[in-house]
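Ticket opened by: R.M.
Priority: normal
Category: complex prediction / small molecule

The reporter submitted a protein together with 3-methyl-2-oxobutanoic acid and asked that the result be attached to this ticket for the collaborator who will pick it up next week. Submitted input follows.
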Amino acid sequence: MATELPTTDIRIGAELIRRRKGGIPLVCLTAYTYPVARLLDPHVDLLLVGDSVAMVLHGHETTLGASLEMMIAHGQAVMRGSARACVVIDMPAGSYEDSAVQAVASARRIVEETGCQAVKLEGGVDMARQIAAIVATGIPVMGHIGLLPQSVEKEGGYKIKGRTDEAIAALLADALAVERAGAFSVVIEGTIEAVAADITRRIAIPTIGIGASPDCDGQILVIDDMVGLTVDRVPKFVKEYADLRSVIAHAAERYAAEVRDRTFPGPAHVFWGSTAFSGTNGGDEA
Ligand code: KIV
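Result attached by the on-call engineer:
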């Protein structure tokens, strides 16, 4: 099992991700913490410090609970835990929508305080100015179109996109606007499958699908969903590759029983006096 930081200092940059268009699918996952970043880094091309952190780790109802400070703190942890993956940090709601000047200031702060490879923001035609302004400063931007979690309150829920001709045309316009603005890749979330596949064929930057299409140039899932740790609503598009809910609940149940019947801590988990020194159990170090 690869749990150690790789010795290579070659970090995948945004340009390398862009060049993977049409190639071997890009493997992307969210990560929010140091240990999880260490575990995922050898296996993925890209780690997204998503604003989903506000829901997944902080228990907020929506991603609107994320702040710039929250994203930077989690971004720093993920950068410490990864050596290889391209790390992208989400720009939280309220940090970029007002103007290109606001977007550039926030993106600069994220990159300067974390050292991440790129930022991501939500929106298509309506956010093209912000994307272009950030890209002009040399900071790579990942777009995000389709179902936009930062807009679910406004839209009255998680609604699948691309069901009508008008909606399909709007999605394509968003994809083209993000591409023209200079984004190096774009997340397509929660769309009709054929629409995401069609957009993937029509634009020259990689599409990263989530609830989208197997034809996208890459896939992304929220890490807690993927390992079966999500305790509330698990979206239909998620495949759980593990059942960590059961693993944790079972471990907590066994621990509770052993504390109550005093079988934990056992002889191997306490420190003995010097006369009882016995190598691993008896040293000064924990
Ligand atoms: O915040 C997030 O986790 C995301 C992914 C769902 C793409 O934006």
